[in-house]
Amino acid sequence: MKQGLSLRVSQHLALTPQLQQSIRLLQLSTLELGQEVEQMLDENPFLERQDEVADREAFGLAQADAPVSLGDSLSEIAIESVAEKSLPSNDDGIFDSKSSTTSDDSAEPAADDPSRTEPEWDGDGTVDIAPDDSEWGSDAPPRGNTGGDDDQVSAADLAFEHVTLQAHLHRQALGMRLSDTDRAALYVLIESLDDDGYLADPLDELAQALEPGDEATDPDLLVRREELVQHLRMALGWLQHMEPAGVGARDLAECLRLQIEEMRNTPVARAALAICDHPLEFMARRDSKKLAALCGLDEPLVREALAVIARLEPKPGRRFANVARNVVVPDVIVTRAGRGFKVQLNPDVMPRLKVHDVYASALREGRGNRTEGGAHMQQRLQEARWFIKNIQQRFDTILRVSSAIVERQRNFFMHGELAMRPLVLREIADELGLHESTISRVTTAKYMSTPFGTYELKYFFGSSLGTETGGNASSTAVRALIKQLVAGEDPKKPLSDNALSDMLKEQGIECARRTVAKYREALRIAPASLRKAI
Q: Does residue 244 have a cis peptide bond before it, meaning omega lies within 30 degrees of 0?
């Protein structure tokens, strides 16, 4: 075998720790980004949160800058003059996002988080404070309570304090005269309720969990469990008479019966109770003829009873759910500006970070120390700098993509979702010179506040449907049109999927019946048989 030397030229892309962090931060949601920032603040001593108001903010696109009026300028000058008299001077430079380095997103590979060891944030060997080590995101208010004493609670906080279903029931139990055993049994049942107010666990299983053991070794175990079941059964009766009506039910039929029993004893209420004793599938189909035959009642009376049942609450614990956790905070805010629209980042979601100048100065003064600890601290300093730059690049990319979406979907922001045009990720990627996977990461779990509501960025992308004129219609606009047609239908004669397909064809949109059914289910619209008025 003959040995020799040869040269080979090849290209490959190395995923540096900086690039990996940039990709990971780009796909995080606002909540996940906040958690990432808090973790980095705890781990890196060179990173700190800037609480003072910055002199100015230099990030984002030039076309996104808002003009400042003369009155606002005079107000800012007055505020700055007062601050200079009351606060010590600070000569730190402001972080300029336009001078930061960016990575080539178009060369981004598909695998963006390979398994790796501890990242090495190798810098250029300098420990001097860079001009861009100062704060970024100056408009965002600092987190935490700035009111001073943590023990002080405002009246607004008490007014909006969330009360759980269990707490509401425990308060009612305090007014009941019960023995210690019965009160304990009622406590167990209340704590066993699910979020909807149902008791999913059978009483026998609850008693077995409260009295564990082996029947072979303990002959009195069955007796104690039977006594415990009796206490639980009595407590269940008290629970099911508490407010809200229907709480403590084991199934939907029992929940409806408990609510009907709270009504006056009328023929309609008795008919509703009789309907609940039969399979609920007849009630779901609104088959008044079948129910009238099964219950031995007149069909008009059955229709009145079905109307009463339709007004009942199938989930008694729903109004005690903590809806505040489902509030969506937009990343981008779009407002009208003359004949166009202004796109800007939401300052409430932008973290205000800077490199700790005291620690960085101390490291600079001791840079002659070449120990292992000094090299580690220099690595942590470089890591803090890259973290600030990657967060800035994340928001810059979100702003660029959002601006491109607003430009492409201008008709939506003027006329609503019926004017939505077809749009795919590749169109935005080609326009901005980014990779399609980058656009997918940007539009996932990022939200935009518009004059018509708050939407996820992915909402503005949709496939196209052909029209008779040879053009294309957005699937989002077709879904909005279906929703509009259903809202204007006759309740006594609801539109079927075939009828909706024909009406769309009359407007020049080729949409098959299966496609209409798919869009209707996506809009959570019931079939025509269930939409028919009783």
A: yes
Helix (H) or strand (E) holding 337: strand 332-337
- Is residue 95 pLDDT above 60, yes or no? no
Going from N- to C-terminal start, the domains of the chain cover 17-138+348-392, 165-239, 252-320, 410-531
321 in Cβ contact with 195 (< 8 Å): yes
The whole-angstrom separation of Cα 361 and Cα 365 is 6
Separation of alpha carbons 413 and 410, rounded Å: 5
Neighbouring CB atoms inside 10 A of 288's CB total 22
The angle that helices 267-276 and 252-261 make with each other, rounded to 10 degrees, is: 170
DSSP state letter for 467: B
Give the CA angle between residues 20, 43, 127 to the nearest 5°. Answer: 75
- Maximum C-alpha span of the chain: 104
Helix (H) or strand (E) holding 145: none
pTM for this structure? 0.59
Instruction: Show the beta-strand stretches assigned E in 339-428.
Output: 340-345, 353-355
- List the alpha helices (DSSP H) in 135-266: 155-159, 165-174, 180-191, 203-210, 221-239, 252-261
User: What tokens appear for 254 in the block?
Assistant: 């029992």
Pick from 427, 429, 404: nearest CA to 341: 404
pLDDT tens, position by position, 262-313: 888 888 898 888 888 888 888 877 778 888 888 888 888 888 888 888 888 8
pLDDT surpasses 80 at 481? yes
Q: How far apart are CA 314 and CA 190, in angstroms?
A: 18
What is the CA angle 505-509-515, rounded to 5?
90
pLDDT in tens, 510-526: 888 898 899 898 888 98
Percentage of the chain lying above the pLDDT 70 cut: 73
Contact 185/225 with Cβ under 8 angstroms? no
